[in-house]
Design goal:
Organism: Elusimicrobium minutum (strain Pei191)
Helix content: 25-40%
Number of domains: 2
Pfam family, one: SpoU_sub_bind
Number of strands: 11
Protein name: rRNA methylase
Largest sheet: 7 strands, parallel
Structural class: alpha/beta
CATH topology of the largest domain: Alpha/beta knot
Strand content: 15-25%
CATH superfamily of the largest domain: SPOUT methyltransferase, trefoil knot domain
GO molecular function, one term: RNA methyltransferase activity
Shape: elongated
InterPro entries: Alpha/beta_knot_MTases (IPR029028), Ribosomal_eL30-like_sf (IPR029064), rRNA_MeTrfase_TrmH (IPR004441), SpoU_MeTrfase (IPR001537), SpoU_subst-bd (IPR013123), tRNA_m1G_MTases_N (IPR029026)
Length: 249
Amino acid sequence: MADNLDIVFGVHAVTEVIKNRKRRVIQLYVLDNKAGHRGIEDAIKAAKRNNIKIDRMDVKTMDALTKKGNHQGIAARVEPVKIMRLIDAIDVSRGNKKDLWIAVDEMTDPQNLGSIIRSAACLGFSTIILPSRRTVGLTPSVYKVASGATEKVTVVEVANLATALLDLKDEGFWIYGADMGGQSIVKTDYSFPAVLVVGSEGTGIREKTAEHCDQVVSIPQAPGSVDSLNAANAASIIMFDMFAKANLK
C-alpha cells in the first residue's frame, strides 16, 4: 500500500494537505527536536482533530524519507492527488465562461512546475494539464514548492497534449501559447474560457503544440535586459494578465 502513497514535506505543504481534506493523510511525521515550532504545532493539532497518526523521528530517518528534501522538520504520507480525466474536467468546467486553465509542455524542472501550480491557485486558474510523458510530474519537491497549492487545483493528465488542446478548442476554449516571439500581452485581448500553454525551460512550447494555439503571446522586456524570464516567472506574469482581464469583462 505504502508504495502507492505520496510523501509531502514542508510546513505549508503538509498543513494545507491536512486542512484541505481533499485526500486522506495516512500518517504525520515530525522531528523530535521541532516541538514548539508554531507551524508544526498547528499541523499536529490539525492532525489530532482528524485522527491522523503522528510519529516522531530523528533527522537521519526524515532525511531518508524525504530524500534529503527541505522538509523543515515535518512530512506526511498521503493518498496520491486525484488525477482527473480531461473529459470529466471539461464537464466540471461547463458553464464557467471565464474559466482559466494552464498546460505545461515537457516541463522537467520541479521548481518551475511547483511555482506554476502555486501561481495558478493564487490567480484563479482552476485546472492544470500535465502530459503523462517527458514532464516532471507531481513529485515531493513539486509539492514542497507549491506550498499546498496542489490541493486547490484540478490536475488532468493527458497522453497527447496537442490532441487535448484540440478537444478543448472543440469545447469552446481559447488556447494561448507563451513564447518570446509572440504578440505582447499588453496588446492581447483574451477570449474565455482560456488555456495558457507554457513550454519547457530550454526550448519553450513545441512547434506541434504551437500550431494548435489561437494566439502566441509574449512579455515585453526592457531594452538590454536578460535574454528571457524563466518558465515559472513568465507563466506567473501571463497568468496575472489573463486573470486581470477576465475580471474586467
